[in-house]
Design a protein that fits this description.
This protein is an alpha/beta fold and 237 residues long. The protein is 42% helix and 17% strand. It is built from 7 helices and 9 strands, in the order E-H-E-H-E-H-E-H-E-H-E-E-H-E-H-E. Strands 3-2-1-4-5-6-9 form a 7-stranded parallel β-sheet, sandwiched between helices. It has a two-stranded parallel ribbon with strand order 7-8. Strand 4, helix 4 and strand 5 form a beta-alpha-beta unit. Helix 1 crosses helix 7 and helix 3 runs parallel beside helix 4. It starts with 8 loop residues before the first strand and ends in a 5-residue tail after the last strand.
Length: 237
Amino acid sequence: MAGTLEGRVIAVAGGAGNVGPAVVQRLAEKGALPCVCGRHQAGLDDLAAEIEQPIETDVVDLLDADGTRGWASDLAARHDGRVDGLVHLVGGWRGGKPIEEAPLEDWDVLSALLVRTVQHATQAFAPHLIASGPGRFVLVSAGQAQSPTHPNAVYAAAKAAAEAWTLALADRFKGTSATANVVVVGAIVTSQMRAESSDKDFSTFTPAEEIATAISYLCSDAASSMNGQRVTLRGAA
């Protein structure tokens, strides 16, 4: 998968998480300026120190609709009115109990993290992505959304809702040059995890580097005909 992102401004929501460094690094290597938001400055500072190319960071609470819109507006103002992409990496998990015992309070937590942040972010950025021309939205989802298991029922339902919202956004983008797509992954393995557990079998996991490559591709002109699609990576089943 190839495609230059030279000069593009790409917002990354939740880029300080476990897959964030690989994604941000790949976007920067392809010529984009990643503009990363997170809830805590310390995590953003650690990320900035790890990435070899220039990035921008902002402390943003994506559960705050006004704050999220302010972030989108500020980015556009700083970059001559342009924001060319939004990558949503915000994650979270609760589960593990039989469906009849699952605490429904988990829905309040996961729907906020996995659905509401997507809603706030896409509502804030959709006008900018349409105005950009080749605007791109990419959601990282999980195989559970399409093939749920009962101990993960709440998590699967939240992921499915986020995917449905993304596909609806893709419908909004019809007739424009903007696109919205989903990258479906399994359990994620990073290079640090491999180094720390060299004897563990990660063959069924989705490497962070593969996720970064897929996101970079979907943000590029090479994927301009892809809208409302799911890209399923190894380990997602």
